[in-house]
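[Meeting: bench + compute handoff]

Bench side (C.D.) handed over the final construct sequence. Compute side (W.E.) agreed to return the predicted structure before the next meeting so the bench team could plan truncations. Sequence as handed over:
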Amino acid sequence: MRKLGVEEWLVLAVMSMYTGAKTVVRTVYGVNANLDLLDKFRYLGDMLSVDGDAHAAVENRTRNRWSEFRHLVPLLTNKYIYD
């Protein structure tokens, strides 16, 4: 909202309304579950954040690529493969 130019007092008022808020969801079994509101979450493998910026997504992609690279290090450093 701040990026859109909404006045600060209005942003704070909206934020105070949702502090500690929970969303009620009905499941297939008819049981209600309370879900916490999150600042960022994963959707179809991508990280989405409330701000709408790409920082969480870039951080997540970088972390995943380094993890994949670390799994390949033994293969890449094996001197007997290239003989």
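W.E. noted at the follow-up: The CA atoms of residues 21 and 37 lie 7 Å apart. C.D. will use this when planning the next construct.
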